[in-house]
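so i finally got all the pieces together for this one. its three components total, 1264 residues if u count the protein bits. some of the lines might not be protein, just check the labels. i wanna see the whole assembly predicted at once instead of chain by chain like last time, that was a mess tbh
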Amino acid sequence: MLGTAASGGHPVARGRLCAKGWHAHEVSTSSQRLRKPLIRRGEELEETSWDDALDVLAGRFGEIKAANGADAIGVLGSPRATNEENFLLSKLARCCLGTNNVDFSARLAALPGLFDLPEYRRLTLSATCLDDIERADLIMLWQVDPAEEHPAAASRVLAAVEQGVLVIEVATRSGRLGRLAGIRLSPIPGTELQLAAGLLHVALAGAEPARAEGDSLAASVDSCTPERTEAVTGVPAQEVVRAGEALTLSERPLVVYSRGAALGPQGPEVLTALSAFGRVADDAADSWSPMLWLSTYCNSQGARDMGVVPYFLSGYQPVSDQDVREKFAHAWGAPPPAEAGLPSWEMLGKVRAMLVMGDDPITAFPDVAGAREAVADLDFLVVQDAFLTPFAQAAHVVLPSATFAEKDGTFTNTERRVQRVRKAVEPPGEARADWEILCDISRRMGRPMEYESPAQVMAEISSLTPTYADLSYQRLDEGWGVRWSLDEAVAAKQAMLGETAADDEPPSVEQCAAPAVDDDFPLILTADYALESWAADKLVVNAIGLRRQQGADRPTVLPQVEISLREAENLELRTGARVWVRSRSGEMEAAVRVSEAVRPGVVVLPATLREAAAAVLPSSSNPETGVPMLRPCAVRIEKT
Amino acid sequence: MSRPPVYVIAKSHLSAWVEKMLETAQVIAPRVAHGPDVAYGELEAPEQVAWDYSSSLAPLKRFLFPQTDTLLRWDKQADDGLQLEPAYDDTERIFLAVRPCDVAGVLFLDRVFTRDREDIYYLNRRKRSTLIALTCAEPGEHCFCVCAEAGPFLKQGYDLQLTRISDEYVVEVGSEKGAALVGEAEDLLVPAPEVLMRARRELEQEAKDRFADDKAYFAAALRQVTFDQVPDHLWDEMAERCLECGGCSFVCPTCTCFLVADSEIGDAGARERLWDSCLYEAYALEASGHNPRAERRHRLKARFFHKLSYQFAKPLEAHGCVGCGRCITACMGSNDMPAVTARIRRGAL
Amino acid sequence: MENIYLPDVVEIADVRDETYDTKSFALRFLKPERWKTFDYRPGQFVEISVFGVGEAPFCLASARNGAEVFEITVRRTGAVTDVLHTLRAGAQLGVRGPLGNGFPFDEVKGRDILFVGGGIGLPPLRPLIWEMLGKRDEFGKITVLYGARTPADLVYKDDLERWRSREDVELMVTVDVADENWTGNVGVVGSLFPKAAIDAPATVAFVCGPPIMIRFVVTDLLALGFADKDIYTTLERHMRCGVGKCNHCLIGDKYVCTDGPVFSYQQMKSMMDPG
């Protein structure tokens, strides 16, 4: 394994790779790879044999299940493992362990993916592909920094800009592409929903009149006039009008969004509102889908497709449906449980044991300290990974796994393109592919799963999953993978919900989530998920060139927060100055960086540093869904 | 050689010739990877050569200066104390059907790795390499070798240069190594008749006419970059369109920046050099934390200074571009060589 | 063909604490005959390998001596230096060198010499000072001005003593911030200029230290009437290969590892680097 080259013919790559792409081979060559199973003896993790590790593992899971029931076990899959591996993990959890406690922690940030929360029926189906960015005549970047979060998308946005397409950026902290945006809207953190409503108000006013479907939507945003929007969000009324009108006039608007929208305090409501932009353009170009979700990891889409979700089996088939359970029971030899399981953020603290395949809840969850505590509290934790991540260091058994270059399988990208990976080199030491490890675990626990190859697993997936029907390796090898069709999924979902889009209730936009500021705490601290988001990622940390590039090697003394030029002037601060950031709940010491990208009145914390900020920026959860998040809070800054 | 000899080989004999080559060395030639992707790769059989290809996805530097190149190994457990073992690659390679721009790229690398001090790792591979160029009658989608004076036909630097004339290939010998390769296939090649040589000369002229000479205006850009006359705001605007992917550095036949890093497993370790890109933010970052090229516009300016200025072109006998056009494909933004030189000439985006 | 990337193995002969974060290491070649060909000039540097961690450049900080060891002075700033600081006599390292261009010597004979060192800037000057003192009558007045942030940051306390006690060199030391025991000068090193009788047109200056200090000192020297070509300094850049191939240390078209690290101010002015 020497290096990486870009495929010219590939429809997504088109000859280009981002920095991580050019260094992708380094996960295979890294000297930091796990080569042998590890087992905890006392305080230390020691090398052991596969036999020993599997025996201990099977024994402990068996004991815990017998003593506390199957639901005392939680299983986490991975948005970076193959579809086959995620499918087998779901099977192992449901059949062998007997629990629906199956999830992956990055799903927290991937929630607006299709059909994830049954309650949110109105989520627009993302029929888009990345190339649609270059077909759009208007692009709205909603709290996403594609340059940081999805360079392949950013590349297309740059191409669109070259063609003169208008880009509207909605961000509290302007991203790398912000300077190329024609309209920049910077709402007060926590008022994003009200801004969306304000834009809808203008856009609908200019749209075709008397659309029955739009009526309830128009009614719900009726009071969100530009002036009212300005008062709540801080975005100037005339900018709201400009942007709203641009939306009306466009025939192929594209709203690009990612976890920034999902993880805000009113994430689900915001996403619902965003999907409404699609209906504004309904009359416009045929078969144009206006929403593009950018997933962060290579197989976030696939992990969901494969049923690594507490209430779905593969293909979004609900566990609550008896026919579905019977179909799977027939193929799997045992029916999955009928009750939905715990989502990942609830598993920690409620289960006694966990099997984690390549995942890392501590880096995903808002409340890092709480996650750490809950992990330390587990009776038994097994982690399969290619590297000894900080999370894996807390495990009782660590199993060394193979990377994408060392196994066959498939991944599904953000545009639902199922693609093959093929084994090129042997995994180092005694590391093995996750799918093989899962079969071994299952065998040891008395419920063998026998497969000769990942291709065989895919055959089973195809037979059970309508959206993946007819996906053989042969077919996948012919071109550049296959994008699975939405039609089946749409039909299935509508049948399940028994409703049509016309009956959807728009969200209430009355309540905003902005914290109250006063003279004591005049600024708002908010967490930004795009900022320095890759610095601690295991690919980056273990790839020598990327480590330096992403600053993983730079000595960090204090966490850094960003402030605007206005605050810098008012408080007489320069980049590097040490300050206290104080909120009503606590304080933290930090170093400031002055940035013109930051909205005045706002202090931006890279979300990767949220553990250091725990005293100041407490985590809470969405009252409707229970999904944890970081809520912006009021702060003041003082020089130390 | 008073006048370099020229031979001809029938298309139908090519496989047999390649078969002979496979007996003596590793043969690297353009191969179909998947779909439209063609790239230089190791041949297993003569049929795999994609003779009519447009261009390879990646240049030859992959083989002579790999993305991951082991320099040394050591084992601290060794009985006789710390022993350092340099890792030399002694593979004999024949690079077959290489586009002239890529040959020009290798010749540029020769000068980079010989200038001031000799780089033994590169030169060790290079001296075991035979370069067989395949001229271009038609430009590819992004080609501008004519602007960079690196094609579509080379005057020298190759060991052999092949030109296809209907069902035959004219074979020009450019070195002793090339002569030896011809000598080993006496039964397959014959001296080229004058009529064929004339056809080849005419084809060269026609080819040059087909290759646009207006894709990249180097002259103005060279001058302005050399004398630091490009306005800062222009670098700034171009930098906004750079995503720091490093693609330009990695696909360019003439880019050679590298990092050196150690890694160890237990007592056994190795020192490797790894491709790096001057566009990366941490490229010039010093141990103290000071970063003289903290701004992206500075890094972009430094890249094009290195590639285009007279200060570098003089010792390296050419500026750092062969007109292969790969940066046009690889750039995630819009800062490929023709675009940048055009903007410099225009003084604006 | 020589392998410019292949280190020689050396052994740590001695470790000496200079300050709380700086140590000097005396290094000896495992193969003694290598010392004969290790002909270095003050101002040159070596690439030191801590095998398994990496390589880092350090200036040669001692004049060639009969003990067949050479010294480097290392401040803890990152991965390689952190590990280096944990090593003791007997530990094995790698060395490549001597690299770089070195200070002018013969060219400045007959001139007055002014050394201005700041903190960790004294190490590269030290071998030059000793070599010049070793050929004392070939140079005019020799003045050494040395400043550090605090007394605890002063390096080479032994050498400072020896220079102080000599009659043929004038040494002045200053600190930015004194402690209770300090009785010497207080202030930046530039504050010593008025006290040292410097005849600018007759003098060549060698200035080493942090970039900010160099900037201020050069400004002061120019104000005193120094010519551009009579001010020398060593530049630092991120260095990897140290042999002019990896391109990381380029300033414009100059390789700090090969064309430098010693440059005159006149050369520096014409160096084009965007940053």
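The domain at 8-99 of chain C is CATH 2.40.30.10 (Elongation Factor Tu (Ef-tu); domain 3).
Residues 211-224 of chain C form the longest helix (14 residues).
anyway lmk what u think
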